Protein: SET domain-containing protein
Organism: Penicillium concentricum
Amino acid sequence: MPAFERLPPSRQESLLEPYGYAGELSKHFVEFEIGKSWEELPELHRKVFAIYAANTFGGFVFFLGYRLNHSCIPNLNFAYNPILKEEMFHIIRDIMAGEQLTVMYIEGTNRTRRQR
């Protein structure tokens, strides 16, 4: 939370836009790591953590990537490039005009639909 609180207000606002959902596992993680129950956290902290938990990819929240929807047959792949310190998007199939850009939220394309 200290890193979030050091950001300028406009950056904080843009990071609070996406939907956040914290499942029971995330809430238990907070309790284990912070030593407080989910309900004891300030509302802003719960919201920031829920957005992080719902939108993190490999430990990063990508500013543009977390705004993309999931597809089991995505048209984009994206990953963090540590050399450039930026998120990188790569088209992996033809994209029709007006088609929504999508990514696969989980790693591993060798999983069945049921496993995903």
